Amino acid sequence: DAGITQSPRHKVTETGTPVTLRCHQTENHRYMYWYRQDPGHGLRLIHYSYGVKDTDKGEVSDGYSVSRSKTEDFLLTLESATSSQTSVYFCATQDSRSGNTIYFGEGSWLTVV
Amino acid sequence: GENVEQHPSTLSVQEGDSAVIKCTYSDSASNYFPWYKQELGKRPQLIIDIRSNVGEKKDQRIAVTLNKTAKHFSLHITETQPEDSAVYFCAASLHGSGNTGKLIFGQGTTLQVKP
Question: Does B94 reach chain A within 8 Å, measured CB to CB?
């Protein structure tokens, strides 16, 4: 499972508060991704990173920001959480040494009330 | 950008029967097509993938076929077992030098295998 750890695993927060989700990997993979999963939509890409301090937007980036100051950590921030951001968030990393396989973390369940 | 459509959204089969899930993609440049299995409350797990330079790949009871001309690919599960019950996702991306391999997912198929 590529040594991917997400924290927190579960969080309930109030509308308007900032939230940061952390993804930590131990495999030194260059590429990292944040996806959200909602019923009927599958997984949708929020932001991705192709190296330290190199990030870019995905399909559904509005309302989210990311940072990657170290290879092993990729942070997803909701600056002001809204109820539409209630979702399951998955971090993923890409192993370019084994055919570019993408592995997912365990997921973070976020509820915005 | 890439768009992936997946059908059916739900599939119920009898144990021992075969199951087929189909996906179509829009970007002819896509060259990597993985399939993920997700059990309730768990992470998506890669079960098989195929690249655009081959038409078919098998791994025990699982196979994937790719038709580049028609831009569709399918997952075939033979001799289904109750433990195959899960949500299956197809995805497409452009892998290769200079590309990060961002996956675009289908909407998912809930497979139920009845004992």
Answer: no
Contact predicate A87/A78, CB 8 Å: no
Is the distance from CB of A87 to CB of A36 less than 8 angstroms? yes
Q: Output helix, strand, coil percentages for chain A, rounded to the nearest 5.
A: 5, 60, 35
- Is B109 touching A (CB cutoff 8 A)? no
What is the H or E stretch that residue A106 is in? none
Residues 6+ apart with CB under 8 A from A34: A21, A23, A45, A46, A47, A48, A58, A64, A66, A74, A76, A89, A90, A91, A92
Question: Collapsing DSSP states into helix, strand and coil, what is residue B104?
Answer: strand
Among A99, A55, A6, smallest CA distance to B43 is for: A6
pLDDT at position A23: 98
Q: What would the pLDDT profile of B8-21 be if each residue is shown by its tens digit?
A: 999 999 999 999 99
- The reply to whether A104 touches chain B by the CB within 8 Å rule is yes
Of A38, A1, A46, residue with least CA distance to A21? A46
How many residues in total does chain B contain? 115
